[in-house]
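Exercise 7. Predict the structure of rRNA adenine N(6)-methyltransferase from Stylosanthes scabra.
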Amino acid sequence: MLGGAPRRVIPRTPPKLLLRQLHHHHASANAENEDSIRFYKSRGQHILVNPRILHTIVTKSAINPTDTVLEIGPGTGNLTLKLLQAAHRVVAIEIDDRMVHVLEKRVLQHGLRHKLHVIQKDALRTQFPHFDLVVANIPYGISSPLLMKLVYGATPFRSATLLLQKEFAGRLLANPGDSEFNRLAVNVKLVADVEFVMDVSKRDFLPCPKVDSSVVIIRPKDQLPDVDIHEWRAFTRTCFSRKNKTLGATFKQKSKLLRLFKLFNVSGFAEEDDDDDAGGCQRPFKEKIIGVLKTGGYEDKRPSKLSIEELLHLLSLFNGAGIYFHDCRKNCNQDRFAEDDDDG
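Solution. The predicted structure, encoded as tokens:
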């Protein structure tokens, strides 16, 4: 109202739900006495409550009775209980001690505590133990780095059945030429195949998120290309920084020329740190890069339309000309890929 008293803004608090709302399919007679718990949407705490979806996820995961399943972000255990019934053992990584308390209590009540191992740590900073497959409702905020840690990690696994934000899953499933195709899809599909399973409505979660989700299955490939992973990832970072620009335009950018020039000479690195312009002593280097692009017919092509095979070929042409993208002086940890791969 104009001229009226200012409205008092009451800050929103995280939704506080009774656990029986989440576990109504397994509620005990004294459920009314259960504690309540707050869920933080900012932490991606959305609990899947639809029993049909939970059943389908477990069924599609093709779990063997001898399997160890890794679950990341088990929350209060709706999916965990079904995994414990199908698998030999479940390793659950959960950072929230409130969730761990509820999870362990529920599993104990079902007589399955001996099959569950809980790791109360940050999944991105924890070394994964041995596991056969992954089944998880991944918190939206860590989807990209966690996926990179799985597919490029040191622990081999058979498959990963993941419940992801629908838009994120769409990028994983995208092919060259699709508007969603980007660096994330390229880096994942280099080492794994991605299969769409189903969409999941936001109404199947408590508290309800803003967007729908999708289930995908990721299966590591048996045969991998003969390429240095760190070199590949640095190369795709350069190419997909502007995925819809031509490669000729991308590699003429001053910042990229300077960076690549510093990595270029017989020993691998030049001491030259001149950033006057992309000409001068760097002009022959620029011409060398454009020459590689022209040789392969890539100068006028856009990375968003190139297949993985074409990108691998282009990288081999660059490396064959002595042009590299990864600074090998930096220490690399094969089980840690913290940077975000979800580039435009």
